[in-house]
Known about the structure:
By secondary structure, this protein is of the alpha+beta class.
Amino acid sequence: MKWVNAKKKRQEAYGSAIQTIADAVESSAEEDKAYTLLTESIYRIEIVGFANNLASAITRAMTPGRDEAEAIDEAITNFSRVFKDYNEALDRREGVALFNHYLDNVKPLDKVDLPVDKSNVEAFVQDLFDNTAFTSEEKVREKIKSLDDLRNDPAFNIYRAISAVALRLIPSLDASSGAIAEANQAFTKGLMEWKAGEPSYPDANSTMRLTYGTVKSYSPKDGVLYKHYTTVKGVLEKEDPDNYEFRVPARLKEILVNKDYGQYTNELGEVPACFLINCDITGGNSGSPVMDADGNLIGLAFDGNWESMSSDVMFEPDLQRCICVDIRYVFLLMDKFGGAGYLLNEMNIIR
């Protein structure tokens, strides 16, 4: 602002940008809090989202002249995959916790129109789960035969009550967002003129970014050292048929037990599975290519170590690592497990 105020022309172009942004944020602050509380609490009960998703799927399937029952059947078929990892018992517990949190924080004016208060949360949530169709694919197919069935489902009624409040809040949020977006154009233009000729760190949202680092081990505490890479041996060591994250498909287990590694081993005869790099990773980065200094694809970033959980606040170089799947393991899975080795013929493989 000192730079802006030094010239009248700059004052006219950029002088009000920061204050406009601040005013817009302030003008919708209460609505923003109410909307965030609503959508990040009771809307996150999974059966409520399921009801909304099925309604949207039915709407898409209801083409002109199409039979309603046929459209609903198709929508349910496309929708039913959501139950693959659904845990009703957990959703019930979360439902109670989320309603309690919501009721503890909501202002009376913004409260959803539902027969629930702090005195009957447990009973309300259990009744909801006992009577909704959205706890299993079988119940959905049994109970949702028409649009009227959907409209009468208690989980869908909660979604409608949430939507009614959200729709009342959205105009204020949209107006604020529009004002911020317009003022931000002037603010950004001013920054670029102020720092003209100097390198500028790019806005991370919706832009392609490149970072660099090295493959590196780390030691989180005394006497503990995590190597810079793991091998497929660890896939078998960590196998747990009762934990979906650590199940090993029969075909993959056969490949690993028989060491049918083909050409995908390192100089020690191992197949590297993952490796660590001292780069940051955050939500949305998964699947990003990891390249060596010559631009060759050597892996895909997909996770961070436990010690990197704080990296959005502060990056600690000695502890925080990005976990990448090694491209040799990717090739092994494509070729031996997936039967798609022919895709490798389209690639320039550097050995």
